[in-house]
Predict the 3D structure of the following.
Amino acid sequence: MKFNLSIENIKYVKILYANAEGNPVSVKAAIKKIDEQEITTCLRYEEKFTIKTPQQITLSIVCSEGLYRTQTTLKSCSVEEPYIFLFLETPSSLEYQQNREYFRIPAEYDCMYYVKSDGQTESYTTKTLDISANGVSILLPNHIFSESESEIEMMVEERLICTKIRYIRSEKYENGYKLSFVYSDISNRDRDYISQVCIKKQLEEKRNKSV
């Protein structure tokens, strides 16, 4: 679809770029100005912040009605403490992703699933099947869940995430069951971390498909 968003439509953006070592990094920024040639974004100053320009980046645009994503060029960077300004080429088009920011990706992480039964807490060592910043699906040999909240501990990349979860649905999967949950008590820091992991994995998958 044609890019026709205005500042009033946009809550914030996420910019996925490559750092000096070539690793993907995601930063959250505000929109300060949009015209036909350029988008000016702004984020808080960080002393160790470095970025190579120009470079191709993935731009995620979070609006009240949904999430959009596009590719564009990061043209330049300007530091004016306490802010950093990133100047992007205005894209000609963008793609509507979904009506919420959170999207699930296939991912296999070690986890511990805790469920209460008859006043006792039982634990199950298993793996995730997919994950998002909103919820997770795990693989179990049996159909085991609680109508109330359960808990899960997941080693997502290099971070141990512990949160309460609420059962949503289940389905037969290979020789067991796929159980899906939403987080019912997760910190904003952990949610943002999972969101960045999902974005990074989507970018890596897109790169692999283009090879």
Q: What stands out?
A: The two ends are 26 Å apart (CA to CA). The chain is about 10% helix and 60% strand. The chain has a mean pLDDT of 87.
